[in-house]
Write a structure and sequence with these properties.
Layout: E1 2-18, E2 21-35, E3 38-44, H1 54-62, H2 70-76, H3 81-98, H4 102-106, E4 118-120, H5 125-134, E5 140-144, H6 151-160, E6 165-169, H7 176-188, E7 191-195, E8 215-217, E9 236-239, H8 241-244, H9 247-259, E10 263-266, H10 273-282, E11 288-289, E12 307-308, E13 311-312
Parallel strand pairs: 4-5, 5-6, 6-7, 7-8, 8-9, 9-10, 10-11
Antiparallel strand pairs: 1-2, 2-3, 12-13
Length: about 325
């Protein structure tokens, strides 16, 4: 068994801004696992918020001893981007070696398309209104917020897309006071859910204040070990493979979270179709799917995931799985 790691860069269609900063390209790591004449692929997006870099994640992957299977990988690497890329490559490798689709290997029903959010990045109210109007035909818009001055942005997006369903991601950018002030307006403007309003580790106030609309844990939820600390504070969890450390843990987290009564959101970092492909399996039946990474790119993998009015479709075997 051989594991290789290759850094790749995909240009974004436009500048993408959240409360923590802006970017013009997606920098990813592509992992290939080769064995017995078969090759599996996976992709991860190292995230500085979690202390990751292209270099640190590459070193983690290159330090993995082979051969190994998915069960051994869970103990060899912690949850995070490195384990994600290797885990997804191992799933892809097994599917190809057994001439099956990944969902057959996993014992899951054949997946279908899922409506995905389209993300509007943080910008001036005028620009966000224009972006909302341009994408008003989309059934679900996700707004990046997270500043003390977000009300004009909210109003502008709703004016630009009066019929779209809206979810909001504060990216840890609000205080309890700011969120409490905004919550009634979120309801008034028809926002369906708010994601990570307070910083992870500083979110205990969510158990003390009213939650008039569902609150979803993103930075506060990585894998199953995160669940005990979410009780009483969150109504939903955002499952991202770069946080869980791959498809294996993502499926387990989904089942455990549902068993504890949490709603499910499946999200992504800004990456290519190869990174989104495994997450489509996790997103089946989710309350919210946010796998729009490829829609934000100026260039993508070949063949890419298909997006249409039905949503994001499962990958063809030539892409993954």
């Amino acid at each position: 068994m051989q594991i290789t790691v290759t850094p790749e860069t995909f240009r974004l269609a436009q500048v993408f801004t959240i409360a923590r900063g802006s970017r013009t390209e997606a920098k990813v790591l592509t992992v290939t696992v080769s064995e017995g004449g078969f090759v599996g692929r996976g992709e991860c997006v190292p995230y500085a918020r979690y202390g990751e870099s292209l270099e640190s994640v590459t070193a983690q992957i290159e330090g993995v001893r082979t051969p190994l299977d998915r069960a051994e990988l869970q103990g060899a690497l912690p949850a995070g981007a490195a384990r994600n890329a290797v885990d997804c490559a191992l799933w892809d490798l097994e599917a190809k070696a057994r001439d099956l689709r990944v969902w057959e290997v996993a014992g899951l029903p054949a997946p279908g398309p899922e409506i995905t959010a389209y993300t509007l990045s943080l910008d001036s109210p005028d620009n966000m209104r224009a972006a909302a109007a341009k994408n008003a035909h989309r059934p679900l818009l996700k707004i990046k917020l997270g500043t003390p001055d977000d009300m004009p942005r909210l109003e502008a997006v709703r004016a630009g897309a009066p019929e779209a369903r809206i979810i909001v991601d504060a990216n840890e950018g609000w205080t309890a006071e700011v969120y409490a002030d905004l919550a009634p307006h979120l309801l008034r403007l028809g926002v369906a859910m708010v994601e990570q309003p307070l910083p992870a580790g500083e979110d205990d106030m969510l158990a003390e204040i009213a939650r008039p609309l569902p609150v979803c844990a993103d930075e506060s939820c990585h894998d199953r070990a995160s669940l005990p600390d979410l009780r009483g504070k969150y109504d939903m969890v955002n499952i991202k493979l770069d946080k869980t450390g791959g498809l294996t843990e993502a499926l387990a987290l989904r089942d455990a979270a549902r068993a504890e009564g949490y709603g499910i959101m499946v999200g992504c970092m800004v990456g290519s179709s190869l990174a989104m492909a495994p997450a489509v399996l996790v997103a089946q039946g989710a309350a919210f799917t946010d796998l729009d990474g490829p829609l934000l790119l100026a260039e993508d993998r070949e063949p890419p995931l298909m997006f249409d009015a039905a949503g994001v479709h499962p990958p063809v075997a030539a892409l993954w799985g």
